[in-house]
UniProtKB/TrEMBL annotation:
<feature type="domain" description="Histidine kinase/HSP90-like ATPase">
    <location>
        <begin position="11"/>
        <end position="132"/>
    </location>
</feature>
<dbReference type="InterPro" id="IPR036890">
    <property type="entry name" value="HATPase_C_sf"/>
</dbReference>
<keyword id="KW-0418">Kinase</keyword>
<keyword id="KW-0067">ATP-binding</keyword>
<keyword id="KW-0808">Transferase</keyword>
<dbReference type="GO" id="GO:0004674">
    <property type="term" value="F:protein serine/threonine kinase activity"/>
</dbReference>
<keyword id="KW-0723">Serine/threonine-protein kinase</keyword>
<dbReference type="InterPro" id="IPR050267">
    <property type="entry name" value="Anti-sigma-factor_SerPK"/>
</dbReference>
<dbReference type="GO" id="GO:0005524">
    <property type="term" value="F:ATP binding"/>
</dbReference>
<dbReference type="Pfam" id="PF13581">
    <property type="entry name" value="HATPase_c_2"/>
</dbReference>
<dbReference type="InterPro" id="IPR003594">
    <property type="entry name" value="HATPase_dom"/>
</dbReference>
<keyword id="KW-0547">Nucleotide-binding</keyword>
<protein>
    <submittedName>
        <fullName>ATP-binding protein</fullName>
    </submittedName>
</protein>
Length: 152
């Protein structure tokens, strides 16, 4: 495989774009050799879903689009970035048990840490931000298993 692969897609900030972002990310990673039924694909699916949802819901209509960017470095490190043009950075909200939302960033941080990765937020030149997740690529070659430890 190449030393560096990149792909990105820009989508409208609309609820329907969340599923499009997930499909794009998992499809791209499948093209790069990551099985869509692997643990890492499931992790990426959830991370992209949460980040895209945040880009749609929390930009308050001030970011007409968001971009999902993927980069693979030397078959070792996968970088997922979601960029929007809203200047407000994500923040962890106190999530009460009865709340239906407010846990996305907590979920993302937990998944990232569980994979041995890291989360950063970077400003864009245009005044927005990119939430970047970096996780090891080598975790991706294990197929998802059922509770009994059997492949589905």
């Amino acid at each position: 495989m190449a030393d560096h692969l990149e792909a990105s897609v820009t989508l409208p900030s609309a609820p329907a774009s969340v599923s499009a972002a997930r499909a794009y990310a998992v499809g791209t990673l499948a093209e790069w050799g990551l099985p869509s039924d692997s643990d890492t694909a499931d992790t990426v699916r959830l991370i992209v879903s949460e980040l895209a949802t945040n880009a749609v819901q929390h930009t308050l209509g001030q970011s007409p689009t968001f971009t999902v960017a993927l980069a693979l470095e030397r078959d070792e490190q996968l970088r997922i970035g979601v960029t929007d043009s809203h200047p407000r950075w994500p923040r962890r909200l106190p999530a009460a048990v009865q709340q239906d939302n407010g846990r996305g960033l907590v979920i993302i941080r937990w998944l990232t840490a569980e994979c041995g990765g890291r989360l950063t937020v970077r400003p864009t030149r245009e005044g927005g931000k990119t939430v970047v997740i970096e996780i090891p690529w080598t975790l991706g070659d294990r197929p998802v298993t059922t509770a009994a430890g059997q492949e589905p």
